[in-house]
Design a protein that fits this description.
By secondary structure, the chain is an alpha/beta fold. The protein contains nine helices and eight strands. Helix 2 (48-56) crosses helix 3.
């Protein structure tokens, strides 16, 4: 087991170095400071031990997309870190919920997530705010998910409806409006898609100056997203590799 853990750590060290180099080079090309871009490690279907290892490597922003898996993993990672399994890291993790969110799961997510990137309807605003109140937590960061292709199956609100939803978020003291999130449409030019998202972000900032964040860019297209102002890139396979395990 120790050997396998050591091999896995070496894999993560190598892939993390490659991803950080990509981010740095993209920022140089865009004339931006790499420190302005947050790397979110999307660990869905990967074990809690990977999260604990990433924490020792300085990756503290963790993304999940299913509540059932995420809530269990949050607890397991906390136990691993409490008991000192593997290397120790005392820095606090920040959990980001990045997948489509069912209204009935919102209150659960609000108990452990530091940020939700996929708010796309008023019902989620109400449920997340109620969940924060019930959990007696500090405010929850919220990103408005924007649909760039109008496909309801992929989640997101149309650009013309972003401001109304943002107003609803801003009216809730339990929530902090951070900005926008989007996934580039399949088979589309990601640069054009993220340019559109940047335009939506600019309109949002005009109404809500604090909403400066843009959550965009994944393993295949993070360079295009950074070129158009992304502040949070959500990287899974390029960092952790691919797994077929499915959590129930």
């Amino acid at each position: 087991m120790a050997l396998l853990d050591g091999e896995r750590r070496a894999e993560l060290v190598g892939s993390l170095g490659a991803v950080r180099a990509r981010i740095a080079n993209a920022c140089i090309a865009a004339g931006r400071d790499a420190r302005a871009v947050t790397l979110i490690a999307v660990t869905k279907t990967h074990p809690a031990r990977d999260v604990a290892t990433l924490a020792t490597l300085g990756v503290l922003d963790i993304g999940e997309s299913r509540d059932q898996e995420a809530s269990a993993k949050v607890a397991e990672v906390a136990e691993l870190r409490r008991t000192g399994a593997g290397e120790r890291s005392e820095a606090e993790l920040r959990w980001h919920f990045v997948g489509q969110l069912q209204s009935r799961k919102a209150r659960s997510v609000a108990t452990y997530a530091h940020a939700v990137h996929s708010v796309d309807r008023p019902e989620l605003v109400e449920q997340l705010a109620a969940g924060v109140t019930r959990a007696e937590r500090e405010g929850l960061d919220v990103f408005i998910q924007v649909s760039l292709d109008g496909d309801p199956a992929r989640g997101g609100v149309l650009g013309d409806d972003v401001l109304a939803l943002a107003d609803a978020v801003a009216a809730r003291s339990q929530l902090r409006l951070r900005g926008v999130m989007a996934v580039a449409p399949m088979d589309a030019d990601p640069r054009a898609a993220f340019a559109d998202l940047a335009g939506v972000s600019a309109r949002l900032r005009a109404a809500h100056p604090q909403a400066v964040a843009i959550s965009a860019g994944m393993s295949a297209d993070l360079e295009a997203a950074i070129a158009h102002g992304s502040t949070h890139v959500r990287v899974g396979s390029a960092l952790l590799g691919r797994r077929t395990q499915v959590f129930g």
